[in-house]
Amino acid sequence: MFWKWSFRVFIIFLGLWLLLDLASRVGAEILWFQEVGYLQAFLVRLLTRGILWVVVASVSAAYLLVNLALAQRLKYPRSLKIEEVELQSEFQNFLSVDYARRDRISTPQTQDLKPLKLRWLLPLALILSLLTGLMVAHYGQIALAYWHSPVDNASLPIPALFRPERIWQLLNQIVSQIWDLGLIVGGAIAILIFPGFLLTAIAIVFSAIFGLMLFQNWAKVLLYFHPTTFNSTEPLFGRDISFYIFSLPFWQLLELWLMGLFLYGFVAVALTYLLSGDSLSQGIFLGFSQKQQRHLYGMGGLLMLLVALSYWLSRYELVYSSRGVSYGASYTDVTTQLPAYTILCVVAVGIAFYLLWRTLFWKPKSQYRRLVFYGLGIYLVLVPAADVVLPNVVQYLIVEPNELQREQPYIQRTIALTRQAFDLEAIDARTFNPQGTLTEADIQKNDLTIRNIRLWDERPLLETNRQLQQIRPYYRFPDADIDRYTLKTEVSSDQPSVPQPAPKQEVIEPLQRRQVLIAARELDYTAVPQQAQTWVNRHLIYTHGFGFTVSPVNTVGAGGLPEYFVKDISGDSTALTTSSQGIRESIPIGEPRIYYGEITNNYVMTGTRVRELDYPSGSDNVYNSYDGRGGVKIGSLWRRWLFAMYLKDWQMVLTRDFLPDTKVLLRRNIRQRIQAIAPFLQFDSDPYLVSADANRNNTDPDYPNGKSYLYWIVDAYTTSDRYPYSDTANEGINYIRNSVKVVIDAYHGIVNFYIADRSDPIVATWSRIFPNIFKPLSAMPINLRNHIRYPEDLFKIQSERLMAYHMTDPQVFYNREDQWQIPNEIYGSEPRPVEPYYLITGLPNVTFEEFILFLPYTPRQRTNLIAWLAARSDSVNYGKLLLYIFPKERLVYGPEQIEARINQDPVISQQISLWNRQGSRAIQGNLLVIPIEQSLLYVEPIYLEATQNSLPTLVRVVVAYENRIVMAQTLEQALQGIFQPVVTPPAPIIRPVEEGSPTAQ
What we know:
Blueprint: H1 2-36, H2 39-74, H3 87-92, E1 116-117, H4 118-148, H5 164-176, H6 178-193, H7 195-216, H8 218-225, H9 241-274, H10 279-282, E2 284-285, H11 290-317, H12 331-360, H13 369-399, H14 403-421, E3 428-431, H15 440-445, H16 447-451, H17 458-468, E4 475-476, E5 481-487, E6 512-520, E7 522-523, H18 535-541, E8 545-546, E9 548-552, E10 566-567, E11 577-578, H19 581-586, E12 593-594, E13 604-606, E14 612-617, E15 620-624, E16 632-633, H20 637-647, H21 651-654, E17 663-665, H22 670-677, E18 682-683, E19 688-692, E20 709-720, E21 735-745, E22 751-755, H23 761-769, E23 774-776, H24 782-785, H25 792-805, H26 810-815, E24 820-821, E25 824-827, E26 830-833, E27 837-842, E28 849-859, E29 867-872, E30 881-885, H27 895-904, H28 906-915, E31 920-924, E32 928-932, E33 935-946, E34 953-961, E35 964-968, H29 971-979
Parallel strand pairs: 3-30, 22-23
Antiparallel strand pairs: 1-2, 4-7, 5-6, 6-9, 8-12, 10-11, 13-17, 14-15, 16-17, 18-20, 19-20, 20-21, 21-22, 24-28, 25-26, 27-28, 28-29, 29-30, 31-33, 32-33, 33-34, 34-35
Helix pairs in contact: 1-2, 1-20, 2-7, 2-9, 4-6, 4-7, 4-9, 5-6, 6-7, 7-9, 8-9, 9-11, 11-12, 12-13
């Protein structure tokens, strides 16, 4: 009795705990979304997920449990004795020759039935129970995958459907894993022993899993009900692309759910009938009664309707086929597979309607009954024949001997739609023929390009920053980003200092664009000494990073170290040190504190009795109190309990340091922050920092007034893997657009989403679903808009697709005769593929310099340059792609060839070998290919670093042009060596005189 009451009390407390946990999660999320201003979007998602789970789980449970209950009523009772045969004697006679000729049972209750004896009953029951076990394994794997995935993940792929090929995969997995095999067989036997309880329990579990599947795929449901047309059709069925992006995934999701529902319902009911009346122990099943047959006919009719739907959807899935030489429906798919799926669909519909008609208008005997069973048998034979045998025969005997001729129109479809899906059609392809006529006058004419050649790579600059600018161990520079700023003055000396008021007589130089590397000094709590990692330090004192550094990419200070436009922590009202007053005016520093960043992974409380560490000043520390707009107030007792339950942090309830205005700052990692608000977008891997006065006139309500702040800009993408005929390659997607720019305030945590590509139908659909999230790009402050750049992740994907899909002729594509590749370069001492890089340069036939993203190409298995791709980032030209193709009959040096020439140069290789002595090593930096006028200039920096306590310094710059290579201490000297060579006469060659020769006499 005590244990029974204890168990009940435990269940009650567990239920209350789960209820409180759910309530705390929902309540805390509502308060957080209200703080960031996106509560409506959260409520729409919450309501959608809740409705989907309740409806799907309820419908599934009702269907399964009602049918199982009906089967329990219609099954044979256990007290029914068919014949007095013990199971042991039945097994003894099981293999007897006379077993099959035993007299049939002819009682009045069974005279119209067809009994199943043990040799048929046992295998049939075992097969159905094993099928149930496989379904449990399949949907259990789906449930585990969904359980471990984020709740708000909107890009989950639809799991594999429970079709014959999936059953075969499961069988192979189970046979290879002895434990899995034991569990499946043991479960199947348990179902045979305890069918009533286990079949009902599995039905309840399946209902919850089905609800979870639709719950996690809420995004596909919302997209289905708010589609936007692409105004473009695919060539096989002539349907708009929107059908494949928005509608087909929804129907596949329904198929996944209903297939499990109807198949399990049919199998569970059939097992209930087969195992009734102690059939296994009696060694014989009486046969299906008329009511049982009618019940099974109805469930079988629904199952066959779903099979018909499955084959109908399979017709559309052919546009994702990988059978032929190109992605999408091939000759075999169109001429063989498509008609086969159509026939199988029609036959399945016919069988389904007959079964449902028999269910509604039942007759004990039907003249078509035998025909239906024969039809089912023929159907089961047709399925593998039409799905496997016939397509393979056509592929090997008809297609492969004439592959180019048969596949040519389908290759054309793949090329066209892949180029559409990755926006390669928008690339402006031009011919670029290097003239090799670059002169010193051209170099002076392109002074802005020369002044912005990047000599400092991200890696050595970060290493130097960590040595010189981290100030304290708990600060860290997680990243350095390329950007461009318009500056009023240049750095006047190699030793920047704290800016002083400019004298009145100083003449401000004209504005000039400079390419810079900007890095945020964030707080890394993991670097705090272990003894100091207390709850108070973690959540109340160490709350934010401070400031940033800005370095020009092309200048070098004393000792080969980078120069800084912005650096240090000044310890007074100026906050950070700048190299000049003009720099301070050009790069505004209003609020340098970073509460939201790339490595701020913990939550903090501000406005408490404990002072927050602001920044170090000499041997002391300066403290600050957060006055930003971020955070949720937790001063009241119920809110403290709410967030303590949500965060599982009971110190929040026990501490006495909180005040009425205390706030908790959650999701301070900017990736987590924007992912929580817009989980249906894919975000770029490289957020970058911008220092700008975003609200200079105090007129923008989205940005706080009064100060300049630091902002993170993140590129966001809409993606899909459902674009017809578009090649998925390695990324698993076959459609992408950079549709959204996200701006996050590093101090206040305010997030704004701006639509950058209004022509994208997917973002148009999401903006209809969540109208309060997105703003037009024109609403972004101009000072921030000047810093948007073409995203590197998108550029990489497009450039990789372009390697094959620049070939638009089907025959050339089939032969792969003009395939490109991304060249390698030597970085450090290891070869690696060239990464896209940003430049400020003038494009050919363009009269001004601009900020571009650049990548060269070489032919497959060759090292000379064949083309280069540029993405523009400035003003009205933002987003435009230009492809410059070199003449094939001319040799243009590629990065690998230039690297080889550098390393083969006796003077350069000797110097590098001298540096690579014990205790130090030379690092060859990124080799940059820079277009200037109608020529190409190659520049590679060389760094020297110690093997311990690395502090890289820039020691040399190598410049190559045409057949000339020069290494010098500075870029200017190297360019002079290239374009102002000092011509000296060759030394005379004096040969030694051999003794005894005629000339010696």
